Inverse folding.
């Protein structure tokens, strides 16, 4: 009797419990087949310690030792690293595509056309220096070119401001993710302190790390208690155990937003230059490097046109035989505009090279018109058209490069995600096979109890 109870009954009970747990885990896998970031789980089974029955050792049945999470830690690190680069190029691609629209010369009205019409209007004035229609047309084309400069510069500034909004919003997203990671740290430690694997919590935390990696670059390590520490910007803690730190933004001298880290004691540290990945890096590179370069080049071209046209115009004489005034006011692309005096009286346009030559002399108009072919840009090696065409070309190349890098990183991350799915993902076919296998094992364990019952009946009847 003792042998029956101690061996068969215990073995049957252990088998029932073990395979019941295996069925539960299999059902959990099936339920989460489409859950993002879920890692397949498996019940590990092991034999119980054998029992001595005098003539030898008899097996003690089976037990479920743990619920294991099928996960490749190294692969997870690879995905996060590549996701940082993907976020960076995604942000750059989107921002530069907006910049490309500002410099679009294939549809609509661009600066190239505005400058061409401006120089052509001067050429028309050369053909009829006293013509009122030619002067009115020149004024209109001059104002159009100046306005085009203004609008392009303003549009670039607006893109920078929009990226500032993205940067500020992303800092808030990072703070929310950091809080969630700290909360999961606490749950994982509480669960695993009891010797149980916090598989689902770990999946949620890894998914948050992947999301975080698309926003900013970071390093992290896991402590012995199961919590992780997340570091950004060369060592600034974002999460440690159950605590998180905040990122925020502060206005820099240029009026743009810099990323700062708050030490939770009221002190902030500017970490803008220490960010090297994620969407934040992509936006910062376009905002602070690319767009600033484009604005500077527009300013240089506008400033040169202002200077050269004004120098030539003031050397001539208007229809009143008076020396020409400055044609443009302002100093850059942002504020170039036609002199309000000339805008109010086109007779002030100085087409003549001498006072005595008025109204038929066109030598000064010729001098201004010939500025189109002058090499005033790039250290005296490029015309205005060449300089601007080079700028437009550089914008196109930057957009193309960002697109190529984005496509490459997207393919990399997609490939790694697929590889992760092959390791950690749920296969419905495999789970259905397991379900049937564990079901049969459970049924077989249940039969042990019927067998014991039959043995008991036999013994009782014999007595």
């Amino acid at each position: 009797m003792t042998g029956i109870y101690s061996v068969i009954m215990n073995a049957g009970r252990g088998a029932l419990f073990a395979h019941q747990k295996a069925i539960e885990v299999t059902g959990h896998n099936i339920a989460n087949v489409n859950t993002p970031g879920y890692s397949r789980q498996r019940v590990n089974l092991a034999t119980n310690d054998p029992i001595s029955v005098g003539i030898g050792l008899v097996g003690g049945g089976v037990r479920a030792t743990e619920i294991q999470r099928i996960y490749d830690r190294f692969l997870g690190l690879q995905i996060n690293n590549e996701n940082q680069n993907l976020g960076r190029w995604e942000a750059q691609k989107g921002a530069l595509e907006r910049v490309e629209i500002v410099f679009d010369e294939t549809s609509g009205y661009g600066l190239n056309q505005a400058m061409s019409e401006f120089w052509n209007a001067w050429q028309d004035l050369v053909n009829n220096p006293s013509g009122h229609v030619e002067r009115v047309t020149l004024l209109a084309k001059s104002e159009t070119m100046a306005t085009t400069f203004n609008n392009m510069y303003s549009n670039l500034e607006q893109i920078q401001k929009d990226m500032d909004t993205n940067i500020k919003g992303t800092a808030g997203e990072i703070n929310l993710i950091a809080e969630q990671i700290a909360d999961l740290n606490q749950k994982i430690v509480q669960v695993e302190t009891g010797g149980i694997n916090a598989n689902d919590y770990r999946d949620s935390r890894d998914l948050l790390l992947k999301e975080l990696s698309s926003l900013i670059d970071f390093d992290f390590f896991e402590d012995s208690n199961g919590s992780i520490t997340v570091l950004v910007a060369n060592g600034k803690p974002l999460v440690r155990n159950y605590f998180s730190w905040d990122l925020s933004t502060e206005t820099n001298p240029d009026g743009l937003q810099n990323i700062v880290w708050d030490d939770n004691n009221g002190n902030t540290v500017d970490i803008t230059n220490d960010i090297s990945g994620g969407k934040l890096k992509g936006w910062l590179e376009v905002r602070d490097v690319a767009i600033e370069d484009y604005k500077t080049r527009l300013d240089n071209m506008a400033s040169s046109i202002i200077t050269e046209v004004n120098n030539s115009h003031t050397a001539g004489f208007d229809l009143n035989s008076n020396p020409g005034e400055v044609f443009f006011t302002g100093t850059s692309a942002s504020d170039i505009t036609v002199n309000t005096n000339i805008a109010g009286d086109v007779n002030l346009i100085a087409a003549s090279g001498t006072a005595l030559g008025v109204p038929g002399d066109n030598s000064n108009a010729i001098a201004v018109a010939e500025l189109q072919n002058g090499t005033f840009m790039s250290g005296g090696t490029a015309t205005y058209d060449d300089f601007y065409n080079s700028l437009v070309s550089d914008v196109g190349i930057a957009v193309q490069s960002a697109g190529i890098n984005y496509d490459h990183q997207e393919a990399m991350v997609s490939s790694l995600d697929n590889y992760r799915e092959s390791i950690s993902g749920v296969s419905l076919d495999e789970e259905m096979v397991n379900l049937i296998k564990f079901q049969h094992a459970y049924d077989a364990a249940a039969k042990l109890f019927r067998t014991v019952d039959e043995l008991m009946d036999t013994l009782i009847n014999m007595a």
Summary: Residues 132-192 form the longest helix (61 residues). The two ends are 13 Å apart (CA to CA). The CA atoms of residues 194 and 317 lie 94 Å apart.
